[in-house]
Amino acid sequence: MDNRKLKVLAAVVDEYIQTGEPVGSKKIADKLDIKVSSATIRNDMSTLEQLGLLMQPHTSAGRIPTYEGYRLYIKEIVGGGEHSLPAEEKERLDAMINSGEQTEEFLIQSATTALAEITNCAAVVTNNSLKFSVISKVEVIPTGRRLYVILLITSNGSIKNRACRLNFDLSNEQLDIFTKYIENSLEGVSVEEFSEDKLRDAATALGAYMTALSPLVEGLCQISRDMNSSVITMKGEENLYSCEEFERNDIVQFMSRKNELKNFLDNTFSGISVMFNEDNKDFVIGNSSILVSHYSKDGKQAGSLGVIGPLRLDYAKVIPYLEYFSNKLSSLITDKNDEADDENDGVEK
Length: 349
Hints:
- With 349 residues, the protein is α+β, with helices and mostly antiparallel strands.
- 49% of the residues lie in helices and 18% in strands.
- Strands 7-3-10-9-8 form a five-stranded antiparallel β-sheet. Strands 4-5-6 form a three-stranded antiparallel β-sheet, covered by helices on one side.
- A hairpin with a 2-residue loop joins strand 9 and strand 10 (300-310).
- Helix 1 crosses helix 3 (38-50), helix 2 crosses helix 3 and helix 8 packs antiparallel against helix 9.
- The radius of gyration is 26 Å and the shape is elongated.
- The relative contact order is 0.13.
């Protein structure tokens, strides 16, 4: 694959993305920055077709890219380093994220919203960074007759709560015993260690109070499941519905099954990964593509950020934004963690 053929492939993909029509050799000859004849371009396009990178939908038509052609095109964009964003655009994006004194969760949601707005696609994110935090405070708050709320706060600023209804009101003694139990068992424990097995083992210390307090223990178990599971958040769903290349029924089906993307989002390799609907029949939106990049916290993968759009997506535009937001998120949430560690070190034990 010489440099000229790569340029021909890129020109075909660019033109097809813009028009949706098969591309002929004369059009490509006019677009290239090298002077070659249409006959030479036809030969190159024929070679690219033999390599499975282009296809000819009709005998008399021009060529269109195949899935493998798109993949090579995307790989060249990612590896070429020619599409970095200008400084003023980065400043605009930073303002959209609004780092300030915000929590990690706010930063991640802001970046996802901004990515959807900038690309006119749907943006998806998974957040596993909560597993790296520590439980800093747990409270049980009476809120009504036989109704109690468990409030849990982590070192990264995340707040989880669960309402629990008991069979009878707790006495002050029972409430004090449970409060001491959760303080001793949970405060200072990492979220990753905050497991149902740990909770149930620790609950044996409640002894005779266990029967009365079991709904509260079950509430803590539910919070544990929530905190240790990766949930997909999506922004810009309206961009899917407004895309003319998508069938509305496909989108409705996808929205009801979007959490099935979780494994793909979290198990992709480093860098930019791409999946087309042709690769995964369970992904029900036809003529679609997904681009995914990871973000990290203290060098560990903390989640995935992705863009869902049409197959004829403007990859050259979208990829630099996806890369920038992923890198920016990694920097911001790592800095937040360092700040939290510094604050904890300054607190007298």
